[in-house]
Amino acid sequence: MRRLAIILLLTIAPVAVGAIALGAYLNFGSIRIIYIGLVHSRFDQLANRIGSDIEVALSFGLPLAGQDTLKPLLSREQSNDPLLDSIDVAGADGKVLFSSDPKRIGTDIATLDGTVDVRSRIVANDFGVPVGTVLARGSMTRIQRQLDGVAEAVERTAAITGLLAVLISAIVILVPLRAFYAQALGAARLADDATESADDPFGWAIAEVETAHAAIAARLADRRGE
Amino acid sequence: MRRFDVIVLTCITVVLVAALAVISWRTLVTAEGILLPALDRKAEVVGRSLSQLVAQADRYGMDLENLVGVDAVFQTALAESSEFGALALLDPGGRVIALAMRNTSAGEPLRGLDGLPVGMRYVALPIASAGGEDLGRVAIGIPDTVTEAFVLDLWLDVAVVLLVSVLVTLELIAFAFAMGAGSSLRAIGQRLDSLRRGDLARHHQQPPGGGRLGEIVTGIDRRITALRLRQKELREAAFERRDAEAMVELDAIDRKFRLTRERVEPPLRVFAVRAPLFLFFFAEEMTRPFLPTFIGEVASTVPGLSREMVISLPIVLFMLIVALLQPWLNGVTERIGRGRALRLGATAAVVGFVGTALAADLWQILAFRSLTAVGYAAVFVSAQGYIIDHTGGLNRARGLALLVTSIMVAALCGPLIGGIFADRIGIRLTFMVSAALSLAAVMTARLALSDDTGKTTERLASVSFRDIMKVVMRPTMGLLLIGCALPAKLILAGLVFFMVPLVLSDEGFDQSAIGRVLMLYALAMLVIVPFVSRISQVQNRRPVLVIIGGLLAATAVVHPFLWPEPWGAAAAVMQLGIAQALSITPQSALVGDIGRRVAPEISEGTLYGVFRVIERIGNAIGPLLAAWLLGGFGQETTLTVLGAVVAVGAVLFAIAVFADARGPSPVAIERG
């Protein structure tokens, strides 16, 4: 009984823990995807709007490098969004022409930086020829910091519910197992040749058959006597 | 025993539902703290774009009241941002000038006194003219239930986790009760269940474990055997004395208590093979939703082959290896021991899964998927051999049904969880999860089948090419095998394993959605097969069920023409599952029925051997044919051809059955 209980616990408890861990991971993972999706679509909208403004100016004959009004616009938009590291506008050669962060002017947008989450929009002239790119560069650290609070809450809840689930699963397994075991041991009397009671939930069929057999046997014996 | 299973399963389900509900609720409450501000910010960005657009129109001298096309612009903006419920243009007094709303399933949303839809909170952005004059506002409505709508998909995934956990728990309970004292307890439980119902049929299952519980099982069986003997003695005595009344009474006892019946349950040790088998097939089934996509991503182009053909190569090779190795592996697994062979097969698959996870090109995928196929064939043959070794004529079918159920439950859970994992942790890591599950299969096999020294009671017939030709040349039999069995597997592997995952992935559906579509096949099979098994007991219903199943499977391909994806694929997979659930059991039984009539000189073992080989050839041809058609002629032609192959096979078999029924004895025809 003890060994069986241990085997059952060792097989079912990991399933319960695994299900809860996976459920918690799915919960957090979904929120993470939704949140990052929202941030991305916001960055995309922003890059789109700036890109459209640039294209309107281009169509009026103002070259990209000459659109000086972009400087205050980029700074204003960046300061409106705490998750943005910078907003850059690069020329066709990939060099940053305007940026909300002055240090980035002249740098190459192709330079990889793992700490930023970049959303971009190509800017094209009236003939559809790309003349530059708008980049909304989000700070991964700040985005992650927003998610850390959710991660902590999910982890804490999962740990508590996981522990409770294992405890309850143990009780759920042990209580009926004990009852089942006791019932199995109780069945030992069925193995004896004792007379069964017709009210016994397990022995009633044996009792009924034995009674019927006895009656038939007695009648057959009487017939032999006749 | 069943009561114990039900109690434990119900409680575990309630515990898991409660735990997952608490986690989801806490996540949602905490997430609102970042999601709602993020939504507001997005609304501000969208609102600012729209307000600038309106301000620009004002600068061009257009009157706000008479702006043309505002509704269309707002409707487009609304379509681009699924989180928003409404977009409105308001004049300085707050009157609605233009409004775009998202219609819900209940129709157009109710509007409040201000003319804006209710059940939303609004983010308003001012519109200012060039001179700074207030022109009005752009209001963006965010539904109050937006966070709940966000996590709707999440709840679907959580429900999947719950379903799979419950099914895995069920398998593990069966596993725990298949060993040592557990098996004795199960044996007593089964006897007590029978006694409670008044069912005194003889149990064949003897627990492998001894001890006190084993003695109780033996004691109960002895008591029942004594009753059976007494019944027999009384019957003989009544017959001798021509006591009709006693005979009638004894018959009534027999009928009521099934006293002279035999129970045809498989032995308890057969249950032990289920857990390793389930875990192993679960591991392989997990790869179904993303395997074609993964091959497509990793494999480079091969000159002269379409992309689809390249993708199909590892799948076809896998099926081919399984088909060719299985007849040969039976002897090998018998020699080295079924348990050991199962462990070796699962270990080979562990290496195969890990290798596939790390594969860098098509050739590596081919090599490691081939290794997995060898493992797959070894595990399948070992499990089948183990069951055959430990069952006899009476309970073999029930024993093999355990194997089929295990595979079907794995086919139900695997794609669901595989899809979720692939979406969340990536395809390569999901292969690693499959490797871990396969390793768990090795460990459970070590625990449950360590004492496997069972002697083979009956050898599985090995099948030669001559055997195949001999069987296939009998018209009715040939049409059953080539016209029904082969196309059934062809369409299954071609459509469900190859085409659906590839097409849905190409159309942008995530792996979780593909997994949900694929599991419909197993779901239909699990629900319908037991019912069909009962109705197909009547021999003359079997050909009809096979023909109906074939025609239903053929017409399953029309759904992708009728419904948008993924509903078209889902309906096709579901109908195929229903169709094959109708035909699979009677088809298998018909092999024996027709074989006995038209080819009595061929042993039943050889007939079934040929049947399995032909089915597996269908598995290999399916993806190859689908890939060739898909690459060369497109989706519509592929579906049409796959459906036509199945339909033609079913019709030809129907004609053969009809001719059989009208003409003289089929044996005479076929020998003549």
Which secondary structure elements does this structure contain, and how are they paired or packed?
The complex is a heterodimer of chains A (226) and B (672).
Chain A: H1 2-59, H2 70-80, E1 84-91, E2 96-99, E3 116-124, E4 130-139, H3 140-186, H4 188-191, H5 204-225
Helix pairs in contact in A: 1-3
Chain B: H1 2-59, H2 70-80, E1 86-90, E2 96-101, E3 120-128, E4 134-143, H3 146-150, H4 152-176, H5 180-197, H6 211-240, H7 244-257, H8 268-271, H9 274-285, H10 291-298, H11 307-336, H12 338-358, H13 362-389, H14 396-425, H15 427-448, H16 465-472, H17 475-506, H18 511-535, H19 542-555, H20 559-562, H21 567-598, H22 604-633, H23 635-662, H24 666-671
Antiparallel strand pairs in B: 1-2, 1-4, 3-4
Describe this structure in words.
The complex is a heterodimer of chains A (226) and B (672). By secondary structure, chain A is α+β, with helices and mostly antiparallel strands. Chain A has helices at residues 2-59, 70-80, 140-186, 188-191, 204-225; strands at residues 84-91, 96-99, 116-124, 130-139. Chain A has a 4-stranded antiparallel beta sheet with strand order 2-1-4-3. In chain A, a hairpin with a 5-residue loop joins strand 3 (116-124) and strand 4. In chain A, helix 1 (2-59) packs antiparallel against helix 3. The radius of gyration of chain A is 38 Å and the shape is rod-shaped. The two termini of chain A are 56 Å apart. Chain B has 672 residues and is mainly alpha-helical. Helix content of chain B is 74%, strand content 4%. Chain B contains 24 helices and 4 strands. Chain B has helices at residues 2-59, 70-80, 146-150, 152-176, 180-197, 211-240, 244-257, 268-271, 274-285, 291-298, 307-336, 338-358, 362-389, 396-425, 427-448, 465-472, 475-506, 511-535, 542-555, 559-562, 567-598, 604-633, 635-662, 666-671, and strands spanning 86-90, 96-101, 120-128, 134-143. In chain B, strands 2-1-4-3 form a 4-stranded antiparallel beta sheet, covered by helices on one side.
